[in-house]
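Q: Is it fine to ask for two folds in a single conversation?
A: Yes, each is treated on its own. Send the first.
Q: Here.
A: Result:
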Amino acid sequence: MELGSTWVVLLSILVGVVGIIKGLLKRANWWFYEVKLGEKQYSLPPGDLGWPFIGNMLSFLRAFKSTDPDSFMDSFVTRFGHAGIYKAFMFGNPSIIVTTPETCKRILNDDDAFMPGWPTSTMELIGKKSFVGISHEEHNRLRRLTAAPVNGYEALSVYTQYIEENVKSALEKWANMEKLEFLTQLRKLTFMIIMYIFLSSESEHLMEALEKEYTVLNYGIRAMAINFPGFAYYKALKARKNLVGVLQSIVGKRRNQKKGYSSTKKKDMMDSLLDVEDQSGRKLSDEEIIDVLIMYLNAGHESSGHTMMWATIFLQEHPEFLHKAKAEQERIIRKRSPGQKGLTLNEYREMEYLSKVIDETLRLVTFSLTVFREARKDVSISGYTIPKGWKILVWFRSVHFNPEIYPNPKEFNPSRWDNFTPRGGSFLPFGAGSRLCPGNDLAKLEIAIFLHHFLLGYHLERCNPRSRVMYLPHSRPTDNCLAKIKKCPSSFV
């Protein structure tokens, strides 16, 4: 009996020690990051900073690798109420997560109080000289430079024909394949388009080599910065190194070619980046050009390809919306003059219902679940303090799934956009403010052209319609939408 009592006492002591250690660990981030704030710590938003070093990342990854990614933010609401703003420890930094339109709008539009605050993994992989890392002044300069070649009216008019030719060719090719990974093929299509816009390149060999590296790169952008074999960030760093090598070679060749440059030759984005100079005559370095290219080539095909896939899936899961979208495209074709060949920008702008389909897909998928900012100074929002140097995560997903803004938010319903204009900060598929995605118009044009031709003459038959959805780095079926593309009888194709 005495021996048994001794074991009970020892076990009780052990449990107590473990409890104390656990309690101390749970308080470690509080000691490191909150106590030094002094009185300001009492005006921080509700929340918790989680465990040392990893913070709240385990619960974040657990949620986004499950079938319910929104359980991560739901846990904050359950524990701390509907504050709409919470403290956490994310991607290696003490952070504030904001989830309401008003706070999102304020943070994305206030460049004096907030600057980019992307995680180490994103900065290292996309590039410190790209839009994600440069100052507000440099960002404005590069944005002015790249806006017209990407989103200008003249550029979009030229790209319309090129995009349409490639979409039609791709669909014809896919219809003759026994089956394919729909998402993989869409990503190849959109990558080909962005390669042409930026590099005037249609080299299939170069495109496949770069696109393969970008696939690996993407898995590391939202990962923890663990540079060790087997981790996504480690593999992504190797992919970036390979991308830099290829792009450096292209930049070097283009610089040599430009020594004999003819002013009659059409400029692409690479030419524009090589030519630009500031007021003192300084031109962009190779590093700056390569980082901008890496960012644009990545962002310029990933979001478009994923949105095309999901819009196609959603429409075919909802025949009533599909028929309405298809009828609109048929009306556009019927109105054409007999001699017209191909879509025009004016016809694109007549696609009112298809635009609603695209917006609803962008909302429901929320390709980028969050963007990152950093407080330049102490900022007061909604009665809470955001300390200088803390990161801010503008949580788009919570905004897009807010039932007070979008009733039945997890339902695909393009008609919700009828006579509905979302208030500021409540629809953020491309961000907002001065750092609004510079390729948003091009992306929507690509998606619309693809859907136009798909609706008029093709049908998607998925092999695994119940395939589980992955949410990191972006929402997609685990089988990349393995499917058969079937050509349908139509007088419009």
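Q: Second one now.
A: Result:
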Amino acid sequence: MVWSNTRDKQLQERAHQVIPNGMYGHESVAMMPDDFPQFFAKAEGTRLWDIDGNEYIDYMCAYGPNLMGYARPEVQSAIVEQLARGDTMTGPGPGMVELAETMVSMVRHADWAMFCKNGGDATSIAMVAARAYRGKKKILVARGSYHGSAPWNTPGMSGIVPEDRAHIIYFDYNDLDSLTKAAKFAGDDVAGVFATPFKHETFSDQSHVDADYARGVRKLCDELDALLIVDDVRAGFRLTRGCTWETVDVDPDIACFGKVIGNGQPISAVLGANKARKAVESMFVTGSFWFSAVPMAAALATMKLVRETDYLKQLVTIGTLLRTSLDAQASQYGFSIRQTGPVQMPQILFDDDPDWRFGYRWCQLAMKHGAYLSPYHNMFINAAMTEADVAKTLEATGAAFADLQANRTTLEPQAKLGVLKRLLAS
């Protein structure tokens, strides 16, 4: 099939008439390379089809929620069965209790669970819990880390006033001295410390958490009687079957999960220790759709797959194969790339590419050959991916590298670089 985007362009034009900017949020293609499709018609397993019928191996996985493969049969069956009984009702179904029991049994630090819809819901609940715990106000957050798009944490500052961030104090990730200084600045008013499982900001290299740093954060929170919150929304259950900081033998007081737990259904979770139970019981947080039964059924089916399959081994195997193959391919065509972070969540950036001309062109060409990659955001491996998918991906990336090699001296700087710099600066 010859790649085309006629229908997508037409729909984007219609969208601009009735939707601000034509699309909003992280799934807008405004910052993606030119011609990236905005609208999709179908997803199954590892594959995604846009509304023009173009087929892609999807390495964004809906920006994370696809863990087991799109439309995984076991999850789809649970969805259909629960939908026939009821979804959003006057109260939750019994699956809510079963899901809470299941997740508490799977995550080492957890004694209780609450459910909501998005990662931002979960992190905001955790923030409120930290303040309710001892009546303190200050929240320590790593500079540049992403915890959602509420006024207290959104990376876009339009409409945000200083009061929204009045009690947020920033420190440098993986830097215990920076964190200690932030805590000293807050005095005796530290309510909680937010931590991501590893450094996974967009537009930059990823880096693993240092075990001594993680232990230092835990020690500091204990000394201050503040809550340690791990934001596992992006990485939870992709790196391990529990909280990601269990891999460095550190337990938080609260962890936030989302993205994958319903394999695409809208559900997130806050899992906490008894230490924070009274604080959480004193709060009022809710949402009309937080108690819907279908996403909880999907989550139960997904957690069963997490417990009983070798999906983690598959993620690592495929992620490692992709990483080593791309390193060799880039070298073959005379390019140097940086692949950082866990292999299950690849981040790929070009060396010697200050104006992004290589990274953007490479992703654009790979997309038109059937591999959907991002030039600036970490990507995701899902458990449905196979060696055949990697081989097909390498055909697409090989064609992209060949084009770069042939045109490397004539490529123009990325036109969106100014917007990128403004985002980075903010």
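Q: Anything structural to flag on that second result?
A: Two points. The chain has two domains: 6-63+310-425, 73-308. Residues 6-63+310-425 form a domain with the Aspartate Aminotransferase, domain 1 fold (CATH 3.90.1150.10).
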